[in-house]
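Something for you to look into today, if you have time. Could you write out one complete protein record for me, on any chain you like? Leave the record below and I will have a look.
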Amino acid sequence: MGGLPMRRREVLGAAAALPIASSAGAAAGAAGGKPRGIRRLSPKLDAILDASGPVETLGGGYTWSEGPLWVPRGGGMLLFSDVPANRIWRWRREQGFDLFLEPSGLAGPIPPSIREAGANGLALDGRGRLLIADSGSRTVARLDFATAKKTVVVDRFEGKRFNSPNDVICASDGAIYFTDPPYGLAGDGNSPLRELDFCGVYRLGADGQLAVVDRSLTRPNGIALSPDESTLYVAVSDPKGPVLVVYTLDARGMPTAKRVLVDFAADLAAGGQGLPDGMKVAAEGHLFASGPGGMHVLSPEGERLGLIQTGDVISNCTIGEGGAALYMTSNHDIARISLKPRRAA
């Protein structure tokens, strides 16, 4: 996922902020010569979605939409971040869009040393509370829906402040995994605010013990777990090495092996807009992973099954409505496609 510095956002093809648009207006704008629709690359896609189905735009006007999360409570709602605007928005089918949280990240006057002050990735913990990769405050935070109280979960490794946490997930045992690139800082990797000399992937255990999963990735971004939690996926948003990395995890939730699952270098060289960014793993094990060209539908082995295109750069996605829909943050817009019901075991 990425709250993105302008240099990287230019690579992804993002543009300036727009006024809030109707879904009809956003859809019309997406049709201006940029690919939109679903490409079927394998017959296996047919079990996941109907490639002839529409790509619906729900609305738009956001500076850079990110971190979508489907929350089942209250009849179901979609939350997503507008990172540069320092807001979290909410969408509900009957009520439409409204502002959920402002500021979503760093409060008070924003210093010029902070490029993007807002929250980025969102997740739910085991008690249904909101986990926030708080890029602006350089923390992983937690929000209680009932009280609206926001607390810091973790903000340092070995006494040094994080760069700018970007994406976060929670395992069934309560462990939290998150990525920490420098995208939220002015100057990116050269920011004088940096206290760590690496961009880490971390695991915070339910016991409060913080461990580094990997410190070698140049720009770790989106993060996801397989349904059985034996595999960890991390997207690397580096134009010089745009890959999706997979880790085999042991019983402690730490890696025993690492390999590249998908290399997107050829897609980027061919002119595909975007970089590996956010992703979600379906209950059946297949992945929806953003990358050059759109949202890639992948098998657990990395086989390319399909490509979803919204007419713009897609940053991230979430699976909602009990598995019946895929929601995507697409630059300024929010898009949706229907998914087929989960197959019976």
Remarks:
- The first helix runs from residue 6 to 12.
- Residues 233 and 246 are 5 Å apart (CA to CA).
- The chain has one domain: 6-338.
